[in-house]
Design goal:
Shape of chain B: globular
CATH topology of the largest domain in chain A: Aldehyde Oxidoreductase, domain 4
Shape of chain A: globular
Oligomer: heterodimer
Largest sheet of chain A: 7 strands, mixed
Largest sheet of chain B: 5 strands, mixed
CATH topology of the largest domain in chain B: DNA polymerase, domain 1
Number of domains of chain A: 3
Number of strands of chain B: 5
CATH architecture of the largest domain in chain A: 2-Layer Sandwich
Structural class of chain B: alpha+beta
Order of helices and strands of chain B: EEHEEEHHHHH
Distance between the termini of chain B: 49 Å
Distance between the termini of chain A: 42 Å
Radius of gyration of chain B: 16 Å
Number of helices of chain B: 6
CATH class of the largest domain in chain B: Mainly Alpha
Strand content of chain B: 15-25%
Number of helices of chain A: 19
Largest interface: A-B, 56 and 53 residues
Helix content of chain B: 25-40%
Radius of gyration of chain A: 28 Å
CATH class of the largest domain in chain A: Alpha Beta
Structural class of chain A: alpha+beta
CATH superfamily of the largest domain in chain A: Aldehyde oxidase/xanthine dehydrogenase, molybdopterin binding domain
């Protein structure tokens, strides 16, 4: 909680800055408000063809024959490709996903053929003219079933449906701790498929020049890694030593969906290669639902115990994750799940194992929080249950076990700045836990830990920046960061403007083009403000030092007496030399110089070792969400009355954008908790549209109270830590805990639909029937 | 079958040849080069293609182009003043954080404009209702609703006065 003294302290700090800490509008907002901003949807190249992909009609089948004669004969069709026509381009980190399938399909999403035509309608018709003969195979859709010996194999050559991944850790002695524990809980939780629902659908344009250099316009969160993936595809096509340029138009939302390269991007490259013309593939909404990778469902078994004072003694978790048919970054989410499992609250003995399982479902991918929402749902639901078992107030229980600055967790995470205790206080003070209230109303809370100082998933967690200043004192910043709407361009502009004593309007940030922007590992793990921000700050510091040296020489005033602000150098409060004049002079002087600097920042975090120990992030973000709900016991409908989201963000570089991240994260989390679900029936997505996939609307908007706790992190740029993902991490357990508080039923499976709540109420009340089934006209049992 | 239609587009008399099966979004984006209206779903579920026809916010992906013959169409490109001065709603969305990825923004702003033209002093519930057909995945709608509320002058019955005033200042 920010008390008055701290608030005053904060005010004093803010007064030192000209742009840091200010509610500055996003630098791209005017272009977006006037319709000028260009997305992949808006781009066309001369001579461009339109590509389209044919997907499988079966979740698991042999492909007997792909007949393309009719499609090829259609006027306007330039290229038709099948798995037999192309070299073996394979996607996924196991290289288990052929770009076009030959021999076998493993999910409805499998790409069987592709066309390029002069018009989208012709491409659509050509796809419908391709005859594919399949021989259906037995399929498997439940990951727990898929582990049984008799289950059909998704990849025969893999011998088992279990991915050979090492997700298992044990720190301390969980078995011994179980003997010591006075209170214990043991429970099963599950989460379901949800998907990103970026408002801008996926798309890419591939274009070769006459020397076979490739330009790909694409929505990606990983321009530098995408460049490498596309380079590999060129190699398989026999094209070596050519340039690959990745250009990012405005991205209509990311949320983790664009952390890998996908078939549509590589398909556009192949079609462009064979057609010798630029090719665009743009998803329609239904295709976006079906052929992009959702957050995977999990089944979690958790046991947790504490001593009689409520101190956590152990946490024992195992998980089964539905990976779907191919590998992507869904299969590695357990690496990040380990963070909350080992380190959310102080818990000395921890055991965790996870099984990622091939099924004939769509394959999974990162989504905001990267495993953390699934793990935290189980942990924070179980924390409430354990507190109740121990007879300790839920808020007090969390206070007792809260992480503290200076902690080193069993996994070796070094907790530096930590505002979790303040977050818990802010929520408890606001929501008045423990007071009597009306029937059907309850309060709940849940906390989170997340990486806030990068995440060393790859060998590098780095980001480059180049800064140049022109004759007029304007600043161009070339960053590796990817702004996909979250506002990194604005944050970087603020950091640079603050350091160089100019206005945000003076700074232009370029992030769109790998030909001019330096390397970066990607926009993931809430790392951009911290890593790209530190990278930009380092480059700006170099410029600043040079400016001061030059100004000292030009004015004859000692460097330490010069103050750089308001676009000029000041001596004792009086402007003596505008930056622009100094810079112009340097170009028109014998042995002149230009003002440029570069900086590569790779944070001081660690790869995890063989036992998964390692300080994966340079610092950690914390937060606590609290919610007051009203449950209609007649219908099972849950209404959110109040919501408070307190986050330790290090420093709020831009409170306007910070609030936006929190509000947006919270509503995405509420959707995860209450309404959202990709209904996967025997591998088929049954609700691939916004009518049936329940993204929340303005009618459902929650005026959440966003409380900012500033802990001014030593490592962060101006003290900031990452905040992109945390907003949606603890939402679901906070709501589940509030529902339990309201009506005494605990829902352990997401989403918490009215049907589930009603069934649980009836079960609790001993009612066997849950009403007449509309189809069978028979009484249906509860659960 | 193709035919010629005449309509007012962003204040200018416009005459174009169209095919009967074109929708308004296709005409705007593919034939008239106005790409501010976006296609998010193509079936009237997301609102990214919202434009204003004769004062009403419509999903242009579901609106046949033939139907705009003789009507007046406002797209996001026509909302700012001729001198480039942003409309009060545009300014408000910019300064109140109503924009993140921006894909929904043109449709969102035009839905808000249609609301304020019809009801200059909407309640929060009115605003939520008017924007219910415009999906946004980034903002949680909070700062969008605040952006609309910020241009509603509770003390004045004349929204146009407020819009003119805030539209002129910077």
């Amino acid at each position: 909680m920010i008390d008055d003294q701290e608030r005053n302290g904060k005010k004093e700090i803010m007064e030192e800055f000209t742009v840091i800490g200010k509610r500055i509008s996003k630098v791209d907002a005017v272009d977006k408000a006037t319709g000028r901003a260009l997305y992949i949807q808006d781009l066309k190249l001369p001579g461009m063809l339109y590509g389209r992909i044919l997907y499988s009609k079966y979740p698991h089948a042999h492909i007997i024959r792909v007949g393309t004669e009719k499609a090829k004969a259609l006027p306007g069709v330039i290229t038709v490709l099948t798995g037999e026509d192309i070299p073996p381009v394979r996607l996924g980190f196991y290289k288990d996903n052929p770009l076009l399938k030959a021999g076998k399909v493993r999910s409805y999403r499998d790409e069987v053929a592709a066309v390029a035509a002069t018009d989208p309608e012709i491409a659509r018709e050509a796809i419908s003219l391709i005859d594919v003969t399949y021989e259906a195979l037995p399929a498997i859709f439940d990951p727990e079933e898929a582990l049984k010996p008799e289950a059909p194999l998704v990849h025969e050559e893999h011998k088992t449906n279990l991915l050979k991944m090492p997700w298992s850790l044990h720190y301390g002695d969980v078995e011994a701790a179980k003997l010591d524990a006075v209170f214990n809980v043991s429970e099963r939780f599950s989460t379901t498929w949800v998907t990103h629902c970026c408002m801008g659908t996926s798309g890419a344009i591939a274009d070769f020049d006459h020397s076979n250099n490739l330009t790909v316009y694409t929505n990606t969160q990983i321009p530098s890694l995408a460049q490498k993936d596309f380079q590999e595809t060129l190699k398989i096509l026999g094209v070596k030593d050519k340039r690959v340029r990745v250009i990012k138009p405005c991205i209509g939302g990311g949320f983790g969906s664009k952390l890998d390269t996908y078939a549509y991007e590589h398909m556009a490259i192949l079609l462009a290669w064979y057609a010798r013309r630029p090719v665009k593939i743009l998803f329609e909404r239904e295709e976006e639902f079906i052929a992009t990778s959702p957050r995977q469902p999990t089944v979690t078994y958790i046991s947790m115990g504490c001593d009689k004072e409520g101190r956590l003694l152990y946490r024992d978790m195992s998980m089964v994750l539905d990976n779907g048919a191919y590998t992507s970054w869904g299969a590695t989410t357990p690496s990040v799940m380990m963070m909350p499992i080992t380190s959310l609250y102080r818990v000395p003995n921890v055991r965790y194992s996870a099984k990622c399982v091939y099924t004939n479902n769509t394959y999974s991918q990162a989504m905001r929080g990267y495993g953390n929402p699934q793990a935290t749902f189980a942990i924070e639901s179980a924390i409430d249950m354990l507190a109740e078992a121990a007879g300790i107030d839920r808020v007090e229980f969390r206070r007792i076990n809260s992480n503290q600055p200076g902690d080193v967790t069993p996994q070796g995470l070094r907790i530096t700045s930590c505002g979790l205790p303040e977050c818990i206080e802010a929520v408890s003070k606001d929501l008045e836990f423990g007071r009597s209230r009306e029937n059907g109303v309850g309060v709940g809370l849940a906390s989170l830990i997340h990486v806030g100082g990068g995440a060393r998933i790859y060998k590098s967690d780095g980001c480059g920046t180049i800064i140049k200043m022109d004759d007029y004192g304007k600043v161009d910043v070339f960053t590796g960061a990817s702004d996909m709407g979250q506002g990194s361009d604005t944050i970087i502009a603020q950091i640079v403007a603050e350091e160089l004593g100019v206005q945000v309007d003076d700074v232009h940030v370029f992030h769109q083009d790998t030909d001019i922007c330096p390397w970066d590992v990607g926009a993931h793990a809430s790392r951009t403000t911290f890593v790209a921000g530190n990278s930009a700050l380092g480059a700006a510091k170099k410029i600043r030092l040079r400016l001061l040296a030059m100004a000292s020489k030009a004015t004859g005033v000692d460097e330490d007496k010069l103050v750089l602000r308001d676009r000029a150098f000041f001596v004792e409060g009086k402007p003596v030399l505008p930056i622009a004049k100094l810079l112009r002079g340097s170009h028109f002087t014998p042995r002149g110089e230009m003002m440029m600097a570069d900086n590569f920042y790779d944070p001081p975090n660690e790869n995890m070792g063989k036992d998964f120990r390692g300080n994966m992030s340079a610092t950690y973000s914390f937060g606590t969400h609290g919610v007051r709900v009203k449950v209609d016991e007649a219908t099972g409908k849950v209404e959110i009355l109040d919501y408070i989201a307190a986050h330790d963000v290090g420093r709020a570089i831009n409170p306007l954008l910070l609030d936006g991240q929190v509000h947006g994260g919270v509503l995405m989390g509420v959707g995860y908790a209450l309404t959202e679900q990709v209904i996967m029936e025997n591998g088929r997505n049954m609700n691939p549209d916004f009518r049936d996939y329940k993204v929340l609307t303005a009618m459902d908007a929650i005026h959440s109270k966003a409380v900012v706790i500033e802990t001014i992190d030593d490592q962060g740029p101006f003290g900031a830590k990452g905040i992109g993902e945390p907003g949606c991490v603890p939402t679901a357990p906070a709501i589940a805990n509030a529902i339990y508080d309201a009506i005494g039923v605990r829902i352990k499976d997401l989403p918490i639909t009215p049907e589930k709540v009603l069934a649980a109420i009836k079960k609790k009340n001993g009612t066997v029937s849950c009403g007449i089934d509309a189809f069978t006209q028979k009484e249906q049992a509860c659960e | 079958m193709s035919r010629e239609i005449k309509f007012v587009l962003n204040g200018a008399q416009t005459c174009v040849a169209i095919e009967d099966d074109w929708n308004l979004l296709y005409l705007l984006r593919e034939k008239l080069g106005l790409t501010g209206a976006k296609e998010g779903c193509g079936r009237g579920e997301c609102g990214a293609c919202t434009v204003i026809v004769d004062g009403l916010a419509v999903n242009s992906c579901l609106y046949f182009a033939v139907e705009i013959d003789g009507k007046e169409v406002l797209t996001i490109e026509g909302l700012a003043g001729a001198d480039g001065t942003l409309h009060a709603l545009q300014k408000s969305f910019v300064s109140n954080g109503g924009i993140q990825c921006g894909f929904c923004t043109p449709g969102m702003i035009l839905s808000a404009k249609a609301l304020l033209d019809e009801n200059p002093q909407p309640t929060e519930a009115d605003i939520k209702q008017a924007l219910a057909g415009n999906l946004c995945r980034c903002t949680g709608y909070v700062q969008i609703i605040e952006s609309v509320e910020a241009v509603v002058d509770k003390s004045s019955g004349d929204i146009n006065a407020v819009v003119r005033e805030t539209g002129d200042s910077d």
